């Protein structure tokens, strides 16, 4: 469900880190966050089993053309996420958080319970559309609450790694669990586990003491709807983050769409082998998530994410030649998981750094929609190229897409991105409170502080000459 750093910000970052425990699990001492974390794990575990079952269902319906069905289903997911998330975030600003989250979990549980009874591709598409619309409303609202629950940046960074670790444990545990269950039952029964996961998630959301909505005057609806997109357009690091999302989607789409095609059509192995291959990807991602809190004390978010994108590009290129045996695929997917986690986990940190509390829900919703726009490109490419040519061609095409995103990230996200940005104001009156600590220069009032786009900074500020 559910992301400082620059040479200029390292000293301060190290100071609070040196005072904090290295315990990755310290955020779980917060009761409300602990309950939400358990809710996330339950929903993820169920969703993971559904992912395995959906791949097997697609293979049952279309054989070697399963990638086309999966690509289409996942493209529907992206359309729902892109279209619904900003509106849902804007509308949810006046809705009780707990009622909203629980209602969406109940809808998702109902869809999961119906999936074992489908027999046609269009039925899969219809049910998954409902599921994805509910998830598009749920996920940004869930993610935007975490900074409110954990205002300390050290705790929040650890929470991001815990969230990534939970997703990675799911990607390991649910395929393993699915592989074991497939030995004694039909894959259709795995959808029951998905429904139970959403029910457990709803119960833990009910039990959590969630932060109340602000009593301040809510922002106008249009600003709530478009404010996040405006922040992305005007903040250089966020534009770089979107470029990296293209690389992340290219690597992830190859894994999620074509694992079943490679394992069961190319190698002639079973659904259990597909589950183990997905688990290898999860293990690599989990290892990176565990290492990231320490790594991010030494390197910037930008460096970690860009090198993750480089890793994924390399794996895709290597896979076009080397993915001819199952054991090699397991190794490729483990390395791909490392790159994937490096590109994904620090994103929340960049989002938090680039927004005020009042704009954060809109920014998370915008990131959710915009990043999934990249997946909307990558999923159909992964499925259609694989079905029309072969998986090796899909490896190469997606490697090109991944390289484009990586290159754009290096260019767009400034390498010098300090926590306190020196800049000059020439748009504020001399008595403005924001300029209390500013130094008067010929160009205007100069000072340095963490910058976000707001009323005092309607555009990204220019540096002093």
TrEMBL record:
<keyword id="KW-0472">Membrane</keyword>
<keyword id="KW-1003">Cell membrane</keyword>
<feature type="compositionally biased region" description="Basic and acidic residues">
    <location>
        <begin position="452"/>
        <end position="465"/>
    </location>
</feature>
<protein>
    <submittedName>
        <fullName>MFS transporter</fullName>
    </submittedName>
</protein>
<feature type="transmembrane region" description="Helical">
    <location>
        <begin position="190"/>
        <end position="213"/>
    </location>
</feature>
<keyword id="KW-0812">Transmembrane</keyword>
<feature type="transmembrane region" description="Helical">
    <location>
        <begin position="165"/>
        <end position="184"/>
    </location>
</feature>
<feature type="transmembrane region" description="Helical">
    <location>
        <begin position="124"/>
        <end position="144"/>
    </location>
</feature>
<feature type="region of interest" description="Disordered">
    <location>
        <begin position="441"/>
        <end position="465"/>
    </location>
</feature>
<feature type="transmembrane region" description="Helical">
    <location>
        <begin position="304"/>
        <end position="324"/>
    </location>
</feature>
<feature type="transmembrane region" description="Helical">
    <location>
        <begin position="393"/>
        <end position="413"/>
    </location>
</feature>
<feature type="transmembrane region" description="Helical">
    <location>
        <begin position="275"/>
        <end position="292"/>
    </location>
</feature>
<feature type="transmembrane region" description="Helical">
    <location>
        <begin position="36"/>
        <end position="57"/>
    </location>
</feature>
<dbReference type="InterPro" id="IPR011701">
    <property type="entry name" value="MFS"/>
</dbReference>
<feature type="transmembrane region" description="Helical">
    <location>
        <begin position="240"/>
        <end position="263"/>
    </location>
</feature>
<dbReference type="Pfam" id="PF07690">
    <property type="entry name" value="MFS_1"/>
</dbReference>
<feature type="transmembrane region" description="Helical">
    <location>
        <begin position="330"/>
        <end position="351"/>
    </location>
</feature>
<dbReference type="InterPro" id="IPR036259">
    <property type="entry name" value="MFS_trans_sf"/>
</dbReference>
<feature type="transmembrane region" description="Helical">
    <location>
        <begin position="363"/>
        <end position="381"/>
    </location>
</feature>
<keyword id="KW-1133">Transmembrane helix</keyword>
<feature type="transmembrane region" description="Helical">
    <location>
        <begin position="69"/>
        <end position="92"/>
    </location>
</feature>
């Amino acid at each position: 469900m559910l992301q400082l750093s620059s040479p200029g910000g390292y000293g301060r970052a190290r100071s609070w880190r040196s005072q904090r425990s290295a315990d990755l699990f310290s955020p779980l001492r917060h009761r409300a966050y602990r309950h939400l974390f358990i809710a996330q794990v339950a929903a993820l575990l169920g969703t993971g089993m559904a992912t395995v079952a959906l791949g097997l269902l697609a293979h049952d319906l279309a054989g070697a053309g399963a990638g086309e069905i999966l690509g289409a289903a996942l493209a529907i997911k992206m359309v729902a996420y892109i279209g619904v998330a900003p509106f849902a975030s804007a509308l949810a600003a006046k809705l009780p958080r707990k009622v909203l989250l629980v209602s969406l979990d109940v809808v998702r549980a109902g869809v999961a319970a119906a999936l074992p009874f489908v027999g046609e591709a269009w039925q899969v598409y219809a049910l998954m559309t409902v599921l994805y619309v509910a998830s598009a409303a749920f996920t940004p609202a869930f993610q935007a609450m975490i900074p409110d629950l954990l205002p300390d940046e050290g705790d929040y960074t650890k929470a991001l790694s815990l969230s990534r670790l939970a997703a990675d444990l799911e990607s390991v545990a649910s395929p393993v669990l699915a592989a074991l269950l497939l030995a004694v039952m039909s894959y259709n029964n795995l959808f029951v586990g998905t429904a139970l996961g959403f029910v457990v998630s709803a119960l833990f959301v009910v039990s959590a003491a969630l932060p109340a909505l602000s009593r301040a005057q809510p922002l106008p609806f249009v600003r709530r709807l478009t404010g996040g997109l405006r922040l992305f357009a005007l903040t250089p690091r966020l534009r770089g983050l979107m470029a990296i999302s293209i690389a992340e989607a290219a690597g992830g789409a190859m894994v999620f769409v074509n694992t079943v095609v490679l394992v069961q059509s190319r190698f002639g192995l079973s659904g259990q082998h597909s589950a183990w291959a997905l688990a290898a990807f999860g293990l690599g991602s989990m290892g990176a998530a565990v290492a990231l809190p320490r790594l991010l004390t030494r390197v910037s978010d930008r460096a970690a994410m860009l090198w993750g994108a480089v890793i994924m590009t390399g794996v895709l290129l290597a896979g076009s030649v080397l993915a001819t045996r199952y054991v090699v695929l397991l190794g490729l997917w483990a390395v791909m998981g490392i790159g994937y986690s490096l590109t994904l986990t620090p994103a929340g940190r960049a989002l938090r750094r680039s927004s005020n509390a009042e704009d954060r829900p809109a920014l998370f919703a915008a990131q959710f929609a915009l990043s999934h726009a990249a997946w909307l490109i990558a999923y159909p490419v992964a499925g259609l190229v694989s079905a029309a040519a072969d998986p090796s061609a899909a490896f190469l095409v997606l490697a090109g897409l991944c390289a484009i995103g990586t290159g754009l990230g290096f260019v767009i996200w400034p390498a010098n991105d300090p926590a306190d940005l020196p800049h000059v104001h020439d748009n504020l009156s001399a008595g403005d409170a924001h300029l209390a600590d500013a130094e008067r220069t010929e160009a205007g009032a100069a000072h340095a502080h963490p910058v976000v786009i707001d009323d005092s900074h309607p555009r990204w500020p220019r540096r002093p000459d």
